[in-house]
């Protein structure tokens, strides 16, 4: 199976971290968001991938090529014209082999192995209280009859959560091309949901599968929620000498942690230094330094330097904060 991963978004809700990194490379539970997605795809024996990049796409390509032994093609989406447009940019990947489209800014906890034997295209869905922010599906029995992008008036509470198994990619390619040729936009963008509806209209059968473990990484508070979820899947690391570790936590083997209390729900990433501090419910990114401080519900960006007193902060990469005692 081939995977398509659109990661072109700028990530404005994750600023200041996305001033220097693409959203999918922001750290959560010890590795970039995209790393968790790639790990899941490798576990499902995905054979190759096309990654649609945009903002700081060279960093995405460098990370994937240096970390994963998976044949990958990288294609740039030069204009942010919607998810449908992003997949259309990668239309050469839509051939005869079934494809899995997986959004690059969300962490999923779902068994995808059933898709290898599925007789039909299928969409990952989850019940939501407010469907106005999502594409939604309407079903008649097991099959989807209608898809609606971000309905102002709720017509269904079953949201499409960013996992799309396409049994017949050539038909999707044709439908995306029709959107582009006829300039068919919803909310001023080319929507993948609209292309899928064209497929349904032409006879493609879509089923759905439930995705209970769906973890958004689009803003600081949801990134911390996802960090908590992922840490709950981890075994406890070794406790550094002179420290207290309250699981669940992640402490990278290359991190230096001295005279500190770490956890619960703290990630201390590669090359970072934590001394004389209490860190809980927080993410300390690569090569950051934390001294003489208590941090809670905080994210400290790469190469940032923080010291002082109790705080709850979101500090971007390469920043320095000194809080007086």
Describe how the helices and strands are arranged.
Elements: E1 2-6, E2 27-28, E3 31-32, H1 33-43, E4 48-53, H2 57-67, E5 72-76, H3 83-89, E6 99-102, E7 106-109, E8 121-127, E9 135-140, E10 143-149, E11 158-166, H4 169-181, H5 192-201, E12 206-210, E13 213-216, H6 220-231, E14 244-245, E15 249-251, E16 256-258, E17 261-262, E18 266-268, E19 273-275, E20 278-280, E21 282-284, E22 289-291, E23 294-296, E24 299-300, E25 305-307, E26 314-315, E27 320-322
Parallel strand pairs: 1-4, 1-6, 4-5, 8-12, 14-17, 15-18, 16-19, 17-20, 18-21, 19-22, 20-23, 21-24, 22-25, 24-26, 25-27
Antiparallel strand pairs: 2-3, 6-11, 7-13, 8-11, 9-10
Helix pairs in contact: 3-4, 3-5, 4-5
In summary, what is this structure?
By secondary structure, this protein is of the alpha/beta class. The chain has helices spanning 33-43, 57-67, 83-89, 169-181, 192-201, 220-231; strands spanning 2-6, 27-28, 31-32, 48-53, 72-76, 99-102, 106-109, 121-127, 135-140, 143-149, 158-166, 206-210, 213-216, 244-245, 249-251, 256-258, 261-262, 266-268, 273-275, 278-280, 282-284, 289-291, 294-296, 299-300, 305-307, 314-315, 320-322. Helix 4 crosses helix 5 (192-201).
What would your notes on this structure say?
The protein has helices spanning 33-43, 57-67, 83-89, 169-181, 192-201, 220-231; strands at 2-6, 27-28, 31-32, 48-53, 72-76, 99-102, 106-109, 121-127, 135-140, 143-149, 158-166, 206-210, 213-216, 244-245, 249-251, 256-258, 261-262, 266-268, 273-275, 278-280, 282-284, 289-291, 294-296, 299-300, 305-307, 314-315, 320-322. The termini are far apart. It folds into 2 domains: 2-222, Alpha-Beta Complex (Spore Coat Polysaccharide Biosynthesis Protein SpsA, Chain A), CATH 3.90.550.10; 234-322, UDP N-Acetylglucosamine Acyltransferase, domain 1 (3 Solenoid). The model has no long low-confidence stretch (mean pLDDT 87). The longest helix has 13 residues, at 169-181. It is an alpha/beta fold and 325 residues long. The strands form 7 sheets. A 7-stranded mixed sheet has the order 5-4-1-6-11-8-12, sandwiched between helices. The protein has a 5-stranded parallel sheet with strand order 15-18-21-24-26, with helices on one face. A 5-stranded parallel sheet has the order 16-19-22-25-27, with no helix packed on it.
């Amino acid at each position: 199976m081939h995977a398509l991963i659109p990661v072109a978004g700028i990530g404005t809700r994750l600023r200041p971290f996305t001033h220097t990194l693409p959203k999918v490379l922001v750290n959560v539970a010890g590795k970039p968001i995209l790393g968790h997605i790639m790990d899941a795809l490798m576990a499902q024996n995905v054979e190759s991938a096309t990654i649609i990049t945009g903002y700081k796409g060279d960093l995405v390509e460098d990370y994937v090529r240096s970390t994963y032994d998976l044949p990958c093609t990288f294609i740039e989406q030069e204009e942010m014209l919607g998810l449908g447009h992003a997949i259309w940019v990668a239309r050469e990947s839509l051939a005869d082999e079934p494809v899995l489209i997986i959004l690059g800014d969300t962490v999923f906890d779902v068994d995808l192995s059933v898709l290898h034997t599925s007789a039909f295209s299928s969409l990952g869905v989850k019940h939501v209280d407010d469907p106005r922010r999502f594409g939604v599906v309407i079903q008649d029995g097991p099959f989807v009859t209608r898809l609606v992008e971000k309905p102002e008036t709720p017509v269904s509470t079953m949201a499409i959560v960013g996992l799309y198994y396409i049994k017949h990619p050539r038909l999707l390619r044709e439908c995306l091309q029709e959107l582009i040729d006829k300039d068919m936009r919803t909310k001023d963008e080319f929507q993948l949901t609209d292309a899928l509806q064209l497929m349904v209209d032409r006879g493609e059968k879509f089923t759905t599968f439930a995705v209970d473990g769906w973890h958004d990484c689009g803003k600081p508070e949801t990134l911390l929620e996802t960090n908590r979820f992922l840490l709950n899947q981890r075994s406890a690391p070794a406790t550094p000498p002179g420290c207290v570790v309250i699981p669940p936590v992640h402490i990278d083997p290359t991190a230096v942690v001295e005279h500190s209390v770490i956890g619960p729900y703290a990630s201390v990433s590669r090359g970072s230094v934590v001394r004389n501090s209490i860190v809980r419910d927080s993410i300390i990114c690569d090569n950051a330094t934390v001294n003489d401080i208590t941090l809670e519900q905080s994210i400290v960006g790469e190469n940032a330097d923080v010291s002082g007193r109790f705080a709850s902060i979101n500090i971007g990469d390469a920043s320095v904060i000194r809080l007086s005692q």
